[in-house]
Amino acid sequence: MADNRMNLKRLIGLYALYGKMDLARFLKDTKYALLGILADTISNLAAVGGVFLLAWKFDGVGGMSKYEVLFMLGYCTLVTGLFTTFCASENVGHISRRIGRGQLDHMMIQPLPLPVQLMAEGFIPFSGSSNVWSGGAVLLFSIHMMGIVLPWWWVFSLVLNLFITLTIILSQSYLYSSAAFYAPVAAEEISSIVIDMQGNLSQYPLSGMPLGLQVSLLGIFPTGLLAWFPTLALLGKLPLHLPYLFPAIMAVVIFIPTQFIFRKGLKHYVETGSNRYMSQGFRR
Asked: Counting C-beta atoms within 10 Å of the first and last residue's C-beta, which end of the chain has fewer, N or C?
């Protein structure tokens, strides 16, 4: 219990430190930083805008109204923003890069547990949060246009769904990244491929698609749990008669084997080391 409190205290201190460092980077060249944030916001809104324009043209998609689709795209943008804010820096979310490049060695000599380092190092609240604000704005606008009145506890349900969605994304990233422990060169970019593929697919509503495809994208490759299912759940329209906590169940189902497989790969890494570095000290 004392160790847990100590790690929590260290984690909060590290969040403050990384937040201060990110603010300093932002203030060092504010004009350049603002242009980067603006470009990131425009590119992400443009990426989801195409789906909304289709929904607007046909007045909805597969039983979802155009503003329900907009809600889903806002949720998707919000998830992207949270991932960027907490996991984008130092390749925390794209962990296969650090494994493949032999950079875990740098972390193992630090006087902090590996999980604490991974939870803190990706935190960039100033330069990485643009999609949080834009996604939240799109979400609020879609709710206003739908004219629905939400109960007071709905915000907590939204936060819970966002946490579950991020857990699913990170669990899959770390699951596939475990291959980099054994094939560092071939699997160095596997996490970015998995995350990008899921992000692109999650922007499309599964409503109206064949049942087999819906089941596949909710179970085998669960991109439907990243935006589509949470959207319908938050709007009180659970798909396929599944329980509200189905994403949480899937998150646990993915997280448990991920933890086992990643730990096993890490043990292999500790025993064999990285073959990316030559005796002269530079990387292959």
From this structure: N
- Lookup result for tokens 């060092």: 28
CA distances from 229 to 68, 85, 118, 135, 138 (A): 12, 23, 28, 17, 18
Each residue of 113-161: pLDDT tens digit?
888 899 999 999 988 888 898 899 999 999 999 998 888 899 999 999 9
Return the higher-pLDDT residue of 92 and 44. 92
User: Which two three-digit tokens encode residue 8?
Assistant: 């929590």
Q: Are 175 and 254 in contact (CB under 8 A)?
A: yes
Mean pLDDT of the chain: 87
**CB of 99 within 8 A of CB of 150?**
no
Highest average pLDDT, of 6-10, 215-219, 256-260, 268-272, comes from: 256-260
Q: Are 266 and 181 in contact (CB under 8 A)?
A: yes
Q: Give me the residue spans of the domains in the chain.
A: 2-272
Distances (CA, A) of 158 to 50, 79, 152, 231, 232: 25, 11, 11, 9, 12
Contact by Cβ (8 Å): 162, 169: no
Residues 6+ apart with CB under 8 A from 275: 184, 284
| Coil, strand or helix at 64 | strand
Signed CA dihedral, 27, 28, 31, 36: sign only: negative
User: Distance between alpha carbon 13 and the CA centroid of its chain, in Å?
Assistant: 23
Complete DSSP assignment for 163-229:
HHHHHHHHHHHHHHHGGGGT-TTTTTTHHHHHHHHHHHHTTS--TTS-HHHHHHTTTTS-GGGTTHH
Rounded CA gap, 247 and 97, in Å? Answer: 27
